[in-house]
Amino acid sequence: MHTKNEFPIQLGSDRVNIRLSRLFESQRHHWNVERHSNAEYEVHLILKGECLLEVEEKNYTLVEGSAVIIYPNYYHYPTVTSKEFERFSISFSVPRGILYDTLNAQNTPLLICKPIPELINICYSIYNEWNSLLSYSQTMLQSLFSVFMVSFFRHLDLSMPEKQSNHLIKEVSRAEIIDAFFNTNLAEPHIEDTLAKQLCISKRQLSRVMYLHYGMSFRKKLILTRMERAAWLLRTSNMRIQNIAEAVGYSSEASFFQVFKSYFEKTPHQYRKESWTQDEKHKHINNTDFGII
Predict the structure, then answer these.
(1) In Å, what is the CA distance from 66 to each residue of 27, 116, 126, 155, 203?
(2) Which of 4, 67, 85, 220 meets the CB 3.0–4.6 Å disulfide criterion with 49?
(3) pLDDT for 125-155, tens place per residue?
(4) What is the pTM assigned to this prediction?
């Protein structure tokens, strides 16, 4: 069985980084999580059965074969699943570019695909390869994830522009610098002047750029990025909480606890215990017991 959980793939001019949960294979027969949001896009494909998904207090029915992409920072959770249930689930991030702009131009918290038989076959091929000990299995997985994403985006029928204006290209490059700054410097002291200098603009201009691209201030974007990264590490790793605090830029564990509890309304220990308790609980539940979550 594979332990690598990241698969960077190239889709045209866009680089997409696929990330798998630590329970990628074992979670396929259940979907029972608390209301949460993610810092990345989530993709779920229903292989068997159906479920009711709540996103920002609206309900959506996902039938067998259908797939959904849930946008970052939107709160969601499954409310009901059928007795016989199976799903395929990944998350992905994409830097500013044509695909990013196309996805966000939809102005919606999620996109739903109608049933796609060929995608189901690809999902089962990925699961089979994931458990395979054959030679070049990692290469095969990389290829299968590429095929999955291409097929998925084709069925979304998004209008992908071939060219961008010089102004948009400039904004994309600027946004990539900002994304890289937040993604690679979480553990370092963040001073707005540092980012402003990288972009060759003033601190005042940086404030306008932040609201243009993210709809929030530098400080709010920093806190959001830190908290979503910390939550992901709590859900998917065994890292000590002190180390997680340091990894996302807090020298004081007490400060990290205070911000985390304010953001999620529970302590890091509670968050991890509840998310892991749900995972362990469903390892022992028979498929026939699925009902209201």
Answers:
(1) 18, 6, 17, 11, 46
(2) 85
(3) 999 988 887 888 888 898 999 999 988 888 8
(4) 0.56
